[in-house]
Amino acid sequence: MTIQWFPGHMTRARRQIEEKLKLIDVVIELLDARIPLSSRNPMIDEILQGKPRLVLLNKFDLADPQTTQAWVAYFKRKGLDALPIDAVTGNQMKEIVPRSQALLKEKIERQLRKGIQPRAVRALIVGIPNVGKSTLINRLAGRKVAATGDKPGVTKGQQWIKAGSELELLDTPGILWPKFEDPGVGLRLAATGAIRDEVLPWEEVAFFAVKYMVQYYEEALKERFSLDVEGIDLENPQEVVEVMEAIGRKRGCLQSGGRVDLEKASTLILRDLRAGKMGRISLEHPDDGVDLSVER
Ligand code: G4P
């Protein structure tokens, strides 16, 4: 689902999260492991007002493991604990409770010294649309929690969901907006499926994805499409388009007269990429050198 974010929506979304912060101990910031910065809200540090925070790099099953490790190190340098998970299978999710408790170590120790048995950690999950918030909540709850209406401003009665005896979640996640005014961010969000608009500029998005793969995932292109892209000049857009056409030709995306249907080839490339059919691919690396700073 695509959300049209207007200033009013952003203000409301922000206010809703700020109100919930009073109720919780820890924020679970959910990011897409393939594009951790592009799937991040640009004002997150300001919105969370210093609340203890655990970063979850979701959809790790689709992300490049090595690049994800580089991201974990990146967040560590920023003072944040980041844990790669897969909310569909639940992989690594057992770590969420101990990591959250570790963030509250001092508070918990203080309570224990006073003879108070600490209660379950109360958490709020926040993230942009389609990053996996509902999937994570359902997984942690062990049941399907009612759909939350993934729209800024749509709320219902606040409820706590038990995730075992040591973790409680607010049932309505905090929905945040991405830094969509940055074209590089928009392309990454579209390529990974965070923006699932029917009117997506498929060719433009596929061009970005193919160029990135020619640069960093030559092997994946070779394996999936038997294409040798060595020596492609990335500065020459025509050469990248030729790679897209070669994929289209191999996959039978042809128009009458034998010309490649580039639009069709583009949708096919992106569907494959989103579904992980080209292997585990990340579209953002801390060393990319692109300015993807999360500050305003
Ligand atoms: P949201 O609440 O943040 O908006 O996201 P939601 O849970 O609805 O998840 C969005 C999509 O991402 C869902 O796919 C979901 O299955 C998928 N997803 C969530 N976590 C993971 C993960 O760790 N790995 C993978 N591979 N996918 C994940 P969908 O397209 O809505 O449905 P479908 O593809 O399951 O049919």
Automatic annotation (TrEMBL):
It is found in: Cytoplasm. One of its GO terms (biological process) is ribosome biogenesis. Signal peptide: none annotated. Keywords: Cytoplasm, GTP-binding, Hydrolase, Nucleotide-binding, Ribosome biogenesis, RNA-binding. One of its GO terms (molecular function) is RNA binding. GTP binds at residues 58-61, 130-135, 174. One of its GO terms (cellular component) is cytoplasm. Residues 14-178 form the CP-type G domain. Pfam families: MMR_HSR1. SUPFAM superfamilies: P-loop containing nucleoside triphosphate hydrolases (SSF52540). Its main location: cytoplasm. NCBIfam families: GTPase_YlqF. Belongs to the TRAFAC class YlqF/YawG GTPase family. MTG1 subfamily. Required for a late step of 50S ribosomal subunit assembly. Has GTPase activity. PANTHER family: MITOCHONDRIAL RIBOSOME-ASSOCIATED GTPASE 1. This is Ribosome biogenesis GTPase A. It comes from Paenibacillus aurantius.
